[in-house]
Amino acid sequence: MGNRKLLAMDLDGTILDSNGQLHEQSIQALNELRKAGHVVSYATGRREYDMVNFQYLYDCTDYVILNTGSIIEHRPSKERSYEVFVEPETARRLIDACNANEWQLYVIIAEGFCLNIITEGVAEYIGRTGVQPILYTKPEDLDLTRIEGFMTARDSDAILQYIRENDLPLDFFNSEPGCYDVIPRGVSKWNGVKTLAGLLNIPLEDVVTMGNWLNDMEMVEGAGTGVAVADAAPELKAAADYVTQRTHDEDPVLDVCRDIFKLQIE
């Protein structure tokens, strides 16, 4: 099989289908890669609480890079080998501004997400996932030393403008239409992938990344082999070294395992 490689994959819109599921064929193929000595990881904007109802996804991975790169977790041991938190004073300033202006702000912590304003969309998410938010009204309601990041939806424009105008040490990424992930400055999926590769002593030329959206651009461009799925954003496909024949609904992992890792895949 040649050198040991690291395969780092986005989840939603990349290897998960439109119902958010990973098919059995893909699970089997990823486990074949692992048996061959390669390392499999997810690199996702999802947080830990987003994975609660999808534990089967861990059956075919060695690591998971969560929260757009701020957390690296070794799945068999469930130990975190890397984590970055928002500076407490930065968190306080942003939370105070959002409360003062009645801007909706999701605060991400390990236990779940905290929220200052409940809207219809939030209620729908709670009903669909069973994940209950922790309500807050002031910074003191939260442990400011353990905040992993934020998410914006309803009031994105105003919140992102506040971050820019006040030069808060935060970066933000359009994770899906209408939503932005807000994370500590310098954190990214690609930084998470590079950190994991370094921990495993895998050179970047032996890293394969796979994505579908613009927040995957850096890791697709930076990896030794960057992969875009067939129905990815046109800009991402243009930047990729390899574009799968299959869409995210059609097990594109199989193309990668066959054409890049040379597994015998139909």
Concise account of the structure shown:
The protein has 266 residues and is of the alpha/beta class. It has eight helices and 14 strands. Strands 5-4-3-2-1-12-13-14 form an eight-stranded mixed sheet.
Describe this structure in words.
The mean pLDDT is 94. This protein has 266 residues and is of the alpha/beta class. Helix 6 links the parallel strand 12 and strand 13 (225-228). The two termini are 18 Å apart. The strands form two sheets. The protein has an eight-stranded mixed β-sheet with strand order 5-4-3-2-1-12-13-14. It has a six-stranded mixed β-sheet with strand order 8-7-6-9-11-10, covered by helices on one side. The protein has helices at 24-35, 88-101, 120-129, 156-165, 189-200, 217-222, 234-239, 252-259; strands at residues 6-9, 39-43, 63-66, 71-74, 79-83, 106-109, 112-115, 134-135, 149-152, 170-176, 179-184, 207-211, 225-228, 242-243. The chain is globular and about 60 Å long. It has two domains: 6-83 and 187-259, Rossmann fold; 88-183, 2-Layer Sandwich (Hypothetical Protein, Haloacid Dehalogenase-like Hydrolase, Chain: A, domain 2). The chain is built from eight helices and 14 strands.
Keywords:
266 residues; alpha/beta; Rossmann fold; Hypothetical Protein, Haloacid Dehalogenase-like Hydrolase, Chain: A, domain 2; 2 domains; eight-stranded mixed beta sheet; six-stranded mixed beta sheet; 8 helices; 14 strands; 29% helix; 23% strand; globular
